[in-house]
Design brief:
The chain is α/β, with parallel strands linked by helices and about 475 residues long. The chain is built from 17 helices and 16 strands. Strands 3-2-1-4-13-14-15-16 form an eight-stranded mixed sheet. Strands 5-6-7-8 form a four-stranded parallel sheet. Strands 9-10-11-12 form a four-stranded parallel sheet. A hairpin with a 2-residue loop joins β2 and β3.
Length: about 475
Amino acid sequence: RARPGRAETGAKRALYCCNSMEAAVQEIDTLINARWIVPIEPAGAVLDEHALAIDGDRIVALLPQGEAKARYRARTVHHLPDHALLPGLVNAHSHVAMTLLRGYADDLPLMTWLSEHIWPAEGRHVSADFVRDGSRLGFAEMLRGGVTCVNDMYFFPEVTAEVATELGLRVTVGAPLIDFPSAYASSPEEYQSKALALHDAYRDHPLVQIALAPHAPYTVSDRGLEWVRKTAEERGLRIHMHIHETADEIERAVAEDGRRPLARLEALGLLSPALIGIHLTQLTTAETALLAERGVHAVHCPHSNLKLASGFCPVHALRQAGVNVAIGTDGAASNNGLDLFAELRTAALLAKAVAGDAAAVPAQAALEMATINGARALGLDDHIGSLKPGKAADVIAVDLSGLESAPVYNPLSQLVYSGDRSRVSAVWIAGRQLLRAGQFTELEAGELLGNARRWRDKIVPSSTTA
């Protein structure tokens, strides 16, 4: 997988300086003073009146503000007296380019939505240009909402990777694998060839890693899935796949094959820590135990599942069994937003209702699902997902000074149960500030909106929507 690009000697020097009681004043790039720091690790920790020190793309230290002032001389100092700092959110499942199809076909069950609306629209319009403009729009939306790392799955993944690199986002790009032809590839062999080329192109990139993304068990043959397993093992890749999304999927699989999809994947050797299973709304107790035993990662997409009436992911049962559960938005075409703060709040509330237990997913657990658990699913938990010295400086600041947040008794609860993406005021990825005072530092929103309108008029020429 991709590794952060900082020299090892620099990271060791930074760690030494932050641990040495006799260290001289150290020059660093950035010092952020905040009312609260929520490091995620250790669980439940909240640091009052602390500072976060950043040099290059690395976190150097977390320490009381007085000590930070004495120990560091920063080129840039931020004072955020009413803010909570936390690690950037990890969107563990998206189809970012589909942001251009937001609102195109709503209030329909999954297979009707896909087969009668989305797949035909994609057949007519998906291209490298579609993916470029859709990715720019979707990534910008996520960035403004505090998302710093995205696990994506869509056609023309090389374009998605290019856009992410241009914008400075951290991304895992899934190379699509599917049995039927598309604008991207005409055969399973061509999908596979392009997947290998994509991995080779980004093998050592500091912000981009590649995964294999077979769409779902019902769209990829045994032969294709065997290739996925073998290639993932040989190249150390993650596998990103929709699994057990609806009851209809299970019924069709049993009718055609005599087995539930997870049983088929188990027989093919695909259930392993490399597998990231998306949705998982239809699970038996035995299947939950099997996922835990095999180390499979689960990604919960609550808004998409609710909107498509796909079912309820048994988050509490999965967590109790020991399965790592992360959170994703899915695509804006089935959501209809890319708001991970809304997703983590809904995930916490829905898990309580499904389990019949108000303590099922507490605030800290919901934040973990949107940060360190997502990083763990992507194999990046040594680098992102929590605020620790030596990790990448992927950091967001959330303003808790507003009426909607007052009074603040517990920042963890406030972030989950009354937090809002509009309160994200600052975002850093690998130490680079991409959002300041709620405004992009390098993006032009007007251009993104113009492109979105142009695609709307192309996809639905008769549209008179303002």
